[in-house]
Amino acid sequence: MHELNAKVVKMIGTKYPKLRTMIRNHPYTKVVGMGVVKCLLKDMKMRADAVSEELLKELLEKGIDLYHKEEERIKDFSVTEHKQQVIREALKDYAESRLAAG
User: Fold this and answer.
1) 20 to 30 A from 83, CA-CA: which of 29, 36, 53, 60?
2) Nearest to 33 by CA among 25, 76, 95
3) How sure is the predictor about 3, in pLDDT bands with cuts at 50, 70 and 90?
């Protein structure tokens, strides 16, 4: 889980260089990044070494889009785990259809 989380943080830092100084506390990392990792490892029962860079990047981008769509709903929650759950539910459906398509 830690290696996958490190990849997610690196991808966010690369795509959004202005966030590097506060990346660990930014919602993209705490909510979206961890939501993606937990979706893949816990919800979909994938192994960290079985997750491709392409899938991870695609889910991260989709997660950030979902975060912005659901931002008001997400901000209503005070617990980070509940915020992540909003992202995880939507990502799981997307990831399953993506993997089924090939």
Assistant:
1) 53
2) 25
3) confident
52: left (phi over 0), alpha (psi -120 to 50) or beta: beta
Q: Which helix (H) or strand (E) holds 70?
A: none
From 79, 74, 90, select the one nearest 39 (Cα to Cα): 90
Residue 55, both tokens: 């899938």
Match 């993606």 to its residue by tokens.
36
The residue type found at 26 is H
Q: What does the buried/exposed string (b/e) look like for 70-89 if buried means 16 or more CB atoms within 10 Å of the residue's CB?
A: beeebeeeeeeeebbbbbbe
This prediction has a pTM of 0.87
